[in-house]
C-alpha cells in the first residue's frame, strides 16, 4: 500500500523507519513530523508548529530531518529544522 502525508500541501524532506514498519517523515512546508502506517495507507501528525508563525515566514525554518536513536535505555524520535533546531 502507498500512503500520502496527511496535509494536502507538503514537502516531505526526510524519512526514518522502524523495524515494525512504521515510517516517520519530516514536512518542510507544514513544519510537522508525521507517523505513517504504510500497511493502512494512513498517517497522522505527531508534532506540528515547527515553523515561525506570521505573514513573513522564512522558508528555511521548517522540519527537515527525522531520526530514531537511543535515548538512555529506550528509543526516541528526533527532529531537526533547517536552521538546526533539535526537537
Describe the largest sheet: 4 strands, antiparallel
Low-confidence stretches: none
Strand proportion: over 45%
Rounded Rg: 13 Å
Portion in helices: under 10%
Count of β-strands? 6
**Strand order, biggest sheet?**
1-2-3-4
The helix/strand series, from N terminus to C terminus, equals EEEEEE
So how many helices? 0
State the secondary-structure class. mainly beta
Q: Roughly what is the average pLDDT, rounded to an integer?
A: 79
Straight-line distance between termini: 30 Å
Shape: flat
Task: Explain what you see.
By secondary structure, the protein is mainly beta. The protein is 0% helix and 46% strand. It has strands spanning 12-17, 23-27, 32-37, 42-47, 63-71, 74-81. The strands form 2 sheets. A 4-stranded antiparallel β-sheet has the order 1-2-3-4, with no helix packed on it. A hairpin with a 4-residue loop joins strand 3 (32-37) and strand 4 (42-47). The model has no long low-confidence stretch (mean pLDDT 79).
